[in-house]
Amino acid sequence: MTREKARKKAELLVSQMTVEEMASQLRFDAPAIERLGIPEYNWWNEAMHGLARGGTATSFPQAIGMAAMFDDELLEKIADAISTETRAKYNALSDEGDRDIYHGLTMWSPNINIFRDPRWGRGHETYGEDPYLTARLGKAFVRGLQGNGETLKTAACAKHFAVHSGPEALRHSFDAIASPKDLEETYLPAFRALVQEAGVEAVMGAYNRTNGEPCCASAYLMGKLRGEWGFEGHFVSDCWAIRDFHENHRITSSPVESVTKALKAGCDLNCGCTYQHIMHAYELGMITEEDITRCAVRLFTTRFLLGILGDEGSEYDDIPYSAIECREHLNLAHQASLESCVLLKNNGLLPLDPGSCGTLGVIGPNANSRVPLVGNYHGTSSRYITVLEGIQDLAGEQCRILYSEGCALSEDRIEHLAKANDRLAEAIAVAKNSDTVLLVLGLDETLEGEEGDTGNSYFSGDKEDLLLPESQRILLEKVLAVGKPTVVILMAGSAIDLSLAQDKADAILLSWYPGARGGKAVAELLFGKESPSGKLPITFYNNDALSEMPDFTDYSMNNRTYRYYTGKALYPFGYGLTYGDCSVEAFSADPNFATVTVANNGCRDTDEVLELYCRDEDSPDAPPYPVLCGFRRIHLAKGEKRSVQVPIDPSAFTIVNREGNRIPGSGKWTLYAGFGAPDERTEELTGKKCRSFLLTK
């Protein structure tokens, strides 16, 4: 169904409603209008890395982990699987009359905010710190969710528009000040790409203000969205964000004023309760019937595009309930878990041989916990495989495995009646009686997440620093001091200072939050059934770097992310090791494509990610360091050598000036090709240097 046809159907249906009936449909929990055959509909559903909060569903790695795959083709397949399961559940539950929250077809995903500061608690919901990577992965996710059928399979939503990435504790009253250059260069490109190139059906406004205007009623942002970019879908507020207008931002003095401001600006749908005041604002003459009608038509256009109104239906109406957690989707989740893990260090200890590694000591608060498998905004899995269970399943018949929890995740003891560090002696004993130690540390959704999430750090979700909790720092120091060969496995969604592990551990594997059955993938990587191949979508900093950065509340990109950070990273953006030995042998380029000869001189097959970066050599407004402009995931067998073509992002040859205008670049660019970024730290960690190519206009 075309948008024009859906809109005409919506206009006809809305024209039959009273003003009060129209107003009732602008709430996320829209009631039924029985006389017109309109069933109730709840717009709120989540699909960040699997169907969330609505019961059983396939669990994929958290979004930041899927970003580390650098694999938009796989991500599109994952989003397609999520939308299949969403339709399967919608079909089955609607037949039972269940139209509750988290059971609809409007998915409030993906989160394409830029992970600009490593303290932000919700950064693991994003695709990292780079605008190009975020845009490319976001487009793939939207395509997978929405499908290419006659009707929308589900409706995706780009959030949170815009300039939104902490602090969580201040988000309801905060004004994010961003320069015209930072807006155009960093904060808005992914939203523009999802609107203009992927046809995202919905956009969600952020809680905060941007440059003085509340994001859910910003003339500037709405002008970009509906004017400059031509967005035709619907706009939804973040949950209870309209209430913040009068309660926290204090730009209005009452709910009716907040309703008026949001509705007239173009916010069609209210997640929250403030739009219950629409009729009051209408009766006072503050908004018109035309204002209400415009919003209602947009919302019913989406419902017609989904094929859930009228008699035509959808080609997805017959997707059976058996699609949920089917073997195909579980295999996709497993592949994603394998591709997402990033090998940060390896002195040769990995991969382990279960037949000859002797006794393994598995230690740590995340080793046998289900919580760090799933991140936040997660569904329910019918099975969970922790890291310990994955290791036991794969190697348990060939070697002895000892286990100690070691410490609590963040408290100083596990048993409340015990003394502090009550599992530390046991952990040291396990280490001393093991031939190799696997130390599983990190965070989970109780320590980094959204403001208001139960139990998260300081009730705001953000981190105060980049250090592991003290209990884990003590455990790490004491276990490393035993002196046994040690692999540190980090389960977290953001940058953690691993300086001690980098200095003293033999290997470090970052698993992120790998999905409900992710322990199996971690074990397969540790024991060499597969080669690690993920790359960092964010910079890992030393904790001291925070003092070099702007304040958390400063949205300037100065000295932030790999494009502007002037210090030495612990692990750079784009970095990740494999069990192969891959290199770039030759490299040439034109403005459209790079042609790269790659080789695997190692003794193991592996996936790799070929990365392209571009630096404008003569423009004073260009970022100071080369910027990602292309990538391609490839598989290289041991000894294989071949030529690979990689498209180059056209915006690589433009720059954004201080006025916020994107203009042609200088005409002289250096392009780089490698399996990491062209920086000194990556070269130091990998022993490999990117190839370069000078391109002139």
Report what the structure shows:
The longest helix is centred in the N-terminal third of the chain and has 24 residues. The two termini are 44 Å apart. About 1% of the residues have low confidence. Helix 1 crosses helix 12 and helix 4 packs parallel to helix 5. This protein has 697 residues and is of the alpha/beta class. It folds into three domains: 321 residues, Glycoside hydrolase, family 3, N-terminal domain (TIM Barrel), CATH 3.20.20; 198 residues, 3-Layer(aba) Sandwich (Rossmann fold), CATH 3.40.50.1700; 115 residues, Immunoglobulins (Immunoglobulin-like). It contains 21 helices and 23 strands. The radius of gyration is 25 Å and the shape is globular. Strands 9-14-13-12-10-11 form a six-stranded mixed sheet, sandwiched between helices. Strands 18-17-22-23 form a four-stranded antiparallel sheet, with no helix packed on it. Helix 18 links the parallel strand 13 and strand 14.
Task: Summarize the topology.
Blueprint: H1 3-14, H2 19-24, E1 29-30, E2 41-42, H3 63-68, H4 72-95, H5 131-146, E3 157-161, E4 175-176, H6 180-187, H7 189-196, E5 202-205, E6 209-210, E7 213-214, H8 219-228, E8 234-236, H9 241-249, H10 255-265, H11 278-283, H12 289-305, H13 327-340, E9 342-346, E10 360-363, H14 371-374, H15 387-395, E11 401-404, H16 424-432, E12 436-442, H17 470-482, E13 486-491, H18 499-504, E14 507-510, H19 518-526, H20 561-564, E15 582-589, E16 593-600, E17 606-616, E18 627-636, E19 641-647, E20 654-656, E21 662-664, E22 668-674, H21 680-686, E23 691-696
Parallel strand pairs: 3-5, 4-6, 5-8, 10-11, 10-12, 12-13, 13-14
Antiparallel strand pairs: 1-2, 6-7, 9-14, 15-16, 16-19, 17-18, 17-22, 20-21, 22-23
Helix pairs in contact: 1-12, 4-5, 4-13, 5-7, 9-10, 13-19, 15-19, 16-17
